[in-house]
Amino acid sequence: MTDPEVCALVDIDEIRAAHLAMHRLTKADAEYIFYHDETNNIKKLRLGVQGFNVTEPGVFVLGGVVHDGTPRSFDLEPLRKAMRIQRSADELKLKHVAKGDFLDLLTSDKLTTFLQWISDNGLFVHYHALDPLFWSLVDIMDSILYRLGEPRLKELHIYLKADLTALLRANLPETTSLFYRYKYPDLAPENRKPFLNELISILERSDDVLPEFNTMILKGMLQAGRNLPSLDFIEGFTPHLLIESFTISYLTRIAVFKYSSHILDMEDSIRDDLESMKLVSGGQPVKNYRFADSKSEPGIQVSDIVVGLIGNMYSYFAGTTRDEVSAARASLIGTSLKNAELLRDIIDASHEANIAFLNHVTSANEIDKMNLFLRSRGSAYE
User: Fold this and answer.
1) What pLDDT, on a 0 to 100 scale, did the predictor assign at position 8?
2) Could you give the maximum distance between any two Cα atoms of the chain, in Å?
3) 300 near 327, Cβ under 8 Å?
4) 226: how many CB neighbours lie within 10 A of its CB?
């Protein structure tokens, strides 16, 4: 008989090797100290007869600040004084620095002080940003591309996924109804063609969402999918359950940076999930992470502000058209412009220090909007 304890083991080296190869990461062996917090953790994403269990699922972000070398002792008192944070606040949070949506946050003088403090203290930001809607939809296109097996089409996958996401986000009530009726992601074989036919019908009625050429290419891909023997990634899974948890995001960061130390804000469900997995590396238990109370960890308090800002930023791009983003960027002045530039410089510096610090599971359209707004180094908008 198989020992049940052995079955429960999760080898992080296998996860790590896959990510290093997929993303061509070369600096993951360095030793860093990561401080983690999260925002927009909706726990699960399900479909019901009325739609999603969450009205507007924002972009989930796990991230914070990171530095190399040995652990530091953060003295936040000078920062608190500079930002005029009341002594009654027992820990720093985004709400003490700025409030509102992304554009509102940028108007805060306190945010300017905070971002400058990040830069002056030699800290980098790190984050894993995941758009729940994008993540729930990409398996449709991946299923078609996998079965078609055409290398030239695979080169277009990021654009096809971006267009499909834009189409279905623009028709969200109809999309959630369609998915619910077909028990997505558990399509029955006999529903394969009807499901894709309905997606094509949505596309044909939405000629204002995508450029004509993009519409033509996406339609051709969906039509090709109707004749496939299976759609592997949206058949045979739990009906109506799109995202079961975000634990994999934590696991991946711990695995990729296995030589680093990870200090995570206490999340009981995530802690319990990781403990149940019995993580090992080289046959030995993984001990490179710990959960802590943010009140006793200044690095986690700083990370709360970072992930709150980044989460607001990604959610803004996901819910805003490119033309609106362009107009908002052109209108930035004063403190808002200064903060946008400081945020850009910190993100650019972090990317240059280690490309593995920043990970996006989002549509290519949202990445384009971010580059457009921030004028990111190396982008077409620099």
Assistant:
1) 67
2) 69
3) no
4) 16
pLDDT digits (tens, 9 = 90+) for 330-377: 999 999 999 999 999 999 999 999 999 999 999 999 999 999 999 988
> What secondary structure does DSSP assign to 148-173, as a single string?
H--HHHHTTHHHHHHHHHHHHHHTHH
Q: Model pTM? A: 0.93
How far apart, in whole angstroms, are the C-alpha atoms of residue 33 and residue 241? Answer: 35
Domain ranges across the chain: 1-74+85-374
Alpha-carbon gap, residue 351 to 345, rounded angstroms: 10
Closest by CA to 148, choosing from 229, 234, 233, 236, is 229
Sign of CA dihedral 351, 352, 357, 360: positive
DSSP 8-state class, residue 69: S
Cβ atoms of 231 and 143 closer than 8 Å: yes
Structure tokens that stand for 156 in this block: 């277009």
**What is the SS3 assignment for 264?**
strand
Q: How far apart are the C-alpha atoms of 352 and 72, rounded to whole Å?
A: 22
Give residue 100's region: left, alpha or beta (phi > 0; psi -120 to 50): left
Q: Where are the alpha helices (DSSP H) in the chain?
A: 4-7, 12-23, 77-82, 94-97, 102-105, 109-120, 132-148, 151-154, 157-170, 172-181, 192-204, 212-225, 247-256, 268-277, 298-318, 322-330, 334-353, 364-374
Query: What type of residue is 294?
Result: S
pLDDT band at 132 (very low <50, low <70, confident <90, very high): very high
Residue 162's contacts (CB-CB under 8 Å, 6 or more residues apart) are 363, 364, 365
Contact partners, residue 97, CB within 8 Å, separation at least 6: 83, 108, 110, 111, 114, 305
- Integer angstrom CA distances of residue 226 from 160, 192, 219, 231: 17, 7, 11, 9
Q: Rounded to whole angstroms, how far apart are CA atoms 306 and 90?
A: 18
> For residue 242, what is the enclosing H or E element?
strand 241-243
